[in-house]
Amino acid sequence: MDEPFAESNGVSSSAIEDMPPNLKALSLFVSDVDFNPSQSRFMELKEKCNDCQVCWETFLTSNSLKTHPRNYTSEELYNCAVCNKGFSQKGNLISHLRIHEKQKPYSCEICGKAFTQNGNLRKHFIIHTGEKPYACEVCGMAFNQTYKLRMHLRVHTTEKPYACEICDKTFNSKSSLRSHLWTHTNEKPYTCEICSKAFLRRPELQRHLRVHTKEKPFACDICSKAFTERPHLKTHLRIHTKEKPYTCEICGNMFSAKGSLEDHSRIHTKEKPYACEICDKTYRLRSSLKSHLRTHTKEKPYACEICSKAFSEKQNLKRHLRIHTSEKPYACEICDKAFNFKNSLKYHLQIHPKEEL
Hints:
Elements: H1 5-8, H2 13-17, H3 21-29, H4 41-47, H5 62-67, H6 70-73, E1 78-79, E2 86-87, H7 90-101, E3 106-107, E4 114-115, H8 118-129, E5 134-135, E6 142-143, H9 146-157, E7 162-163, E8 170-171, H10 174-185, E9 190-191, E10 198-199, H11 202-213, E11 218-219, E12 226-227, H12 230-241, E13 246-247, E14 254-255, H13 258-269, E15 274-275, E16 282-283, H14 286-297, E17 302-303, E18 310-311, H15 314-325, E19 330-331, E20 338-339, H16 342-348
Antiparallel strand pairs: 1-2, 3-4, 5-6, 7-8, 9-10, 11-12, 13-14, 15-16, 17-18, 19-20
């Protein structure tokens, strides 16, 4: 194998090691150049490299190299006529203008989603391929985008570079800080176009939309019951596994969901945090307040599919359906007579002498 041309023409190994990456590669792998030390051909090639003296990135043209330093100087030669945002490169301004013009010329051939920049389309395409080329060197967890890996690394470093100027709380991502700031301003920037309900975060709006679309993308593999959110499916699965990881420290009662434990704890604390704004009546459970509010609004959202009779509570509809199904789940232990309502059984038991009970 031939010697690299730089070494064969008097350039030492130590000198090569000290070279910037682009020039080092040139010296090591270009072996068919007729090098003449007296003509300084090697230095001539170096000058033709169009390499940045700060980061040693190499450019194909001298014009590209000329505009590149603006990345370091923050020089903004091109300003948006709409919002006055400044850019160092003309191409970046052109891409930015598509935001105002709602122009998205780059479309995904698989799902049709469109983007303002070709680079964003390339990043999006990885979602379909399932490729996760960016792996964490600490735990091995892989990601499909570099920014996700960068944010993940802060889990290991516990770095939180974004601080709230109001309360000094810190966050590991800019988006988390932005969402937090809205808690101070009471701003809810994400609004449902169907019912106008507003949300603090985009994922909250996306989850809410399933109320309108009736979409339930998370299905149980055991009983096929579907849910709008993944955490709800996770909680549901504990019905099958009989897992109850949440224990009451006062009475030892166990629960499959953290929320159920919190609701139960109020039995001990007598806390009733849910208050009616109309009559000031308070409740231990949010669902109880929700049911109570219907006494003011006269809303009856639960309708019988057989006779169309409507009810304010789901439980009342469930009891009503027994009239149509002739189901009688409440049986007398003395005479085996059955009833479709618990109160009916209670009334029936009065017929039997006390000694029979």
